[in-house]
Amino acid sequence: PDMIVGGASTANGDPDNLYHILGERGSHSTAILRRARIEKKLEEGRSLLDRNEVNNHYKKVSRLVLEEVPFVHIGFSQGVVAYRSDKIKVSSNIRNRESYSLDIFEPVQ
């Protein structure tokens, strides 16, 4: 074939659904399961205007998260495309090469 699409990923469980319920506005959340202390700190972080304050603030948020839950999942998902460069090329019009979409490719003229 001229193109083969594949993928690779690794992940493990999220028994506390932490990833999905951290925030209030603009973050994944569920009203029943939200954690008020974490939510408050995340909302405070949204109002920071000084870049020098960001690192220290989110260090505190990270420690608070680990106090709230026993486990945080870490994972990744990566799209992979192998293609014949004599038949297919990456479009020069794209803005993000790390796209998972096949519309970043075009036929070689």
Taking Cα atoms only, what radius of gyration do you get, to the nearest Å?
20 Å
Low-confidence stretches: none
Shape: elongated
Strand order of the largest sheet: 1-2
Secondary structure tally: strands: 4
Derived structural class: alpha+beta
The amount of beta strand, in percent, is 15-25%
Mean pLDDT: 75
Helix content: 25-40%
> Distance N terminus to C terminus?
18 Å
What is the H-and-E element order? EHHHEEE
Q: What is the number of helical segments per DSSP (H or I, 4+ residues)? A: 3
The largest sheet is: 2 strands, antiparallel
Q: What this model shows, in words?
A:
30% of the residues lie in helices and 20% in strands. It has three helices and four strands, in the order βαααβββ. The model has no long low-confidence stretch (mean pLDDT 75). By secondary structure, the chain is an alpha+beta fold. It is elongated, with a radius of gyration of 20 Å. Strands 1-2 form a two-stranded antiparallel ribbon.
